[in-house]
Amino acid sequence: MATSGCFRLLSRAAPSSSWRLLAAPLRTSTGWSSAVRLGPCRPFHAAAGLSSEEKVTVHFINRDGDKLTAKGKVGDSLLDVVIDNNLDIDGFGACEGTLACSTCHLIFEDHIFEKLDAITDEEMDMLDLAYGLTERSRLGCQICLKKYMNNMTVRVPEAVADARQSIDMSNNS
Amino acid sequence: MSRIGGILGCASLSALRVLLPKGPRAGIKRLLSTAEFRPRICIVGSGPAGFYTAQHLLKHHKLTQVDIYEKLPVPFGLVRFGVAPDHPEVKNVINTFTQTARSDRCSFSGNVTVGRDVTVEELQKAYHAVVLSYGAEDNRTLGIPGEDLEGVYTARAFVGWYNGLPENRDLKPDLNSETAVILGHGNVALDVARILLSPLEVLRKTDITEESFSALASSKVKRVCLIGRRGPLQVAFTIKELREMINLPGVRPLLDPADFRDLGDAIKDIPRPKKRLTELMTKTALEEPSEEVGGRWASASKEWRLKFLRSPLEVLPTIDGKRARAIQLAVTRLEGAGDAVKAVPTGEVEELRSGLVFSSIGYKSLPIDPAVPFDSKRGVIPNNSGRVLGAPGLYCSGWVKRGPTGVIITTMNDSFDTAQSVLEDLQSGALELSGAKEGFDLVSHILRSRGVHPVSFLDWEKIDAVEVARGKLSGKPREKIVDQEEMLELIGH
């Protein structure tokens, strides 16, 4: 967890309240700041220590089928997990966890979905506008990690644009 | 690397690293040759479509240079000038756009009107690809007598006015009518209704302009009637905005039970979003509210209602013939089924007294330049996944690509889709990269020769800082500068 620890140090060093840099950032060590965090789990990002207790592992199946695995603390939202671990999911969390968009839409496994906290009308309202809505859809910013979620797999739904072969020219010219 | 500020800026470092392992000499040679063929792409318009297109291109092609041109001195289009001031959450996307603009491979040039200061043809000479993301700058008109009377406004101008759009700063709407009529059942109509009815203590803390706030503070509007030609199943607004209206403090919703009583069967098989939306309207119309809510509604001093099956015929003038006095409506009934359902006049005519009428029947894109194909009937640039038909090297995204509908995620996906087309064409060779293009160097030369002074992103950040500082004095996120000249003076133009 050296990398993630490094991020947390950087985060705390940066006082800016603009905590989101890019919806799907690259793996670089520029100054992330997570001073302000919205969402249902914690009104602001707790400046907790680096202890690894209460960590939950989550697997994300990205739109291209790639599996991204990351850890978060109990109480973190899935949006926190994506941001804190710099997971490369295009356009994820555009409204920064304020229930004003549906870009953090995730699809859950049956046995996990059944145990999730009840959904609010406001979350349902935003999910109504999500792409690829399923019976097991929720917004990542509204789901907070609990111990029983350890090793769960969530799927990023395909957007219309992703039905096509995705091209990434990051590593070539 | 002059700056390591932006994530995207650092990306070119990793691209460089890929080139280096072959040994310094080979590396430098390859670097030079790739620099020569660096794809240069420009984007016309800096609203969400422009910025999401730029973001996707920069992220997925580590050599490309993206230059964004904007008509106004300030960026972000409808995120700044369209999103309602009491919806600051949606404006969080600006944080991501700002990171994109700060990238070393991205530039922003405001105060440049493409089609006037520089032509699309000239942009095509300077860039390998040109993406048109300039949105929908006009609105559909009612085409009825009395539309030009005082007291009749387009929702678009009203939204521009309270959001500080320079061209609407002198609108000065007359808010002395107790009843306001809004023609249209979309989210913009609900935005206008909400701004007219919201408690002042809510609006005071938003980035609504000072002038519009004081005008609203002395507004006499108590009742807002939103009129649609068709029925409850054809409304275009979304559920979040409807719920907000229903829960608006100090305001009572009035939905006619007769409009909803017989919907029962019709909503069984419709898709979830429309079903939940219709159920919320039906519940509000037919069910007894809880004691608390009922009490709140009973004591409310303002109200709004949805009126269905009415088509505007004429705005009637006051005796002096100058101002709106009332609106004449044709009662309609529905014919046909599904999305094709049409409102047909029954012959019955009604009159509704109101000195304040807003038309909110949709935005409309305009052609930008004779060199660009345009479908004036649909109000879009004809395209296939963002590739402008019959015009290689030209692309479009956002409202000018698919029409003026949808929420932020719609425009995001749509812009990613266009960027994907550009990337595909770069990879397949459909986009001719053999000749180096001069990009901004050429364009800035052209602009200089015409006496046009572009506003850079750094310039915008100066304007931004002044707005935020002014807002702070009155407990607002910002006080928008509404005078274009003042903006330019601030940055020494």
Description:
The complex is a heterodimer of chains A (173) and B (493). With 173 residues, chain A is of the alpha+beta class. Chain A has four helices and five strands. In chain A, the strands form two sheets. A three-stranded mixed beta sheet of chain A has the order 2-1-5, with helices on one face. In chain A, strands 3-4 form a two-stranded antiparallel sheet. Chain A is 17% helix and 14% strand. Chain A starts with a helix and ends in an 18-residue tail after the last strand. Chain B is of the alpha/beta class and 493 residues long. Helix content of chain B is 37%, strand content 18%. Chain B is built from 18 helices and 18 strands. In chain B, strands 6-14-7-8-10-9 form a six-stranded parallel beta sheet. Chain B has a five-stranded parallel beta sheet with strand order 3-2-1-4-18, with helices on both faces. In chain B, strand 1, helix 3 and strand 2 form a beta-alpha-beta unit. Chain B is globular and about 70 Å long. The interface between A and B is large, with 44 and 54 residues.
Please summarize what this structure is.
The complex is a heterodimer of chains A (173) and B (493). Chain A contains four helices and five strands. Chain A is of the alpha+beta class and 173 residues long.
